[in-house]
Structures are given as C-alpha cells and as structure tokens.
Write the structure tokens for this entry.
Amino acid sequence: MNDEETPFIYGLEYQTRALTNFDNANDNSTIRFIVGTQSLRNVNKVHLVEYSEETNTYSNLVFKHNQGEIWHLSSCSSHHNLITSCYSSVKSSRDGKVYNCCSLFKFPFDLSDTSAADEDYIASLEKLADFKSGRLFVQQIC
C-alpha cells in the first residue's frame, strides 16, 4: 500500500462470517457487496455496502434478517434483488434446538437505484422460498 491509499473500514454491530460480492448491474465505477451478521439471540441484518474507489466513499443500506444467524450469503447476477442465505435458527423449533436452514430472499425494493432509499429505515428481507432436503418449497412466485 502506498502513502496515498486510505484503508476502507466498515463496522458491524455483530460478528460476521458471510461476505460476498453483489453484482452492480451497469455501474463499473463502484464496488458493491453484502455482508450478514451472526448472532443467535438478536435480530441479524444484511448490509448492502457500495464503495467508490475514486472518491474513497461508501453508502450502505441495512435489511433485517429475522430468520437467524447468517452463515453464508449468495447473490444472483441475473436477478439483482434476490439473494440466498444459509442460517441457523432456534425460532423455528419448539424444542430449543438449533436448525440449519437455507432460503431465497428478495430485497423489499429495487436496488438498481438506491439513491431514493432512506438510509435510516431498516426494512425486512422478504422470504420467498425454503430449500429443504433437496426440494424447494415456494411460498410465492418471484
């Protein structure tokens, strides 16, 4: 790193093990990625971070992930508003056991233009489907 480069640091409220690139559609001047928090007892969040190397600035949007602690995230390059999440959850069980799950989620609004989004409002991701034992249980059509 030379003397002119400034490191980019982004803080989260909980630890994380899930970080992935997020396709930036038609914009090559910024880098986008999503990161998910990991807390078994608190509401987890997915952060969409957009970073500009040219100006060394960033913007972010945060979404609630109410299902559980996030272990893995994956974005979809052909459908920019969809992600999959692998997570652990105790909320779906009555016996208090931790279950591993994988689901398809949709962002609550179109992410191709985030300029109109309110950075102070935290919307919830919309769960579209669960992946269970090699089968897909679709709750609604994408």
In short: The mean pLDDT is 79. The two ends are 44 Å apart (CA to CA). The longest strand covers residues 44-52. The CA atoms of residues 31 and 51 lie 5 Å apart.
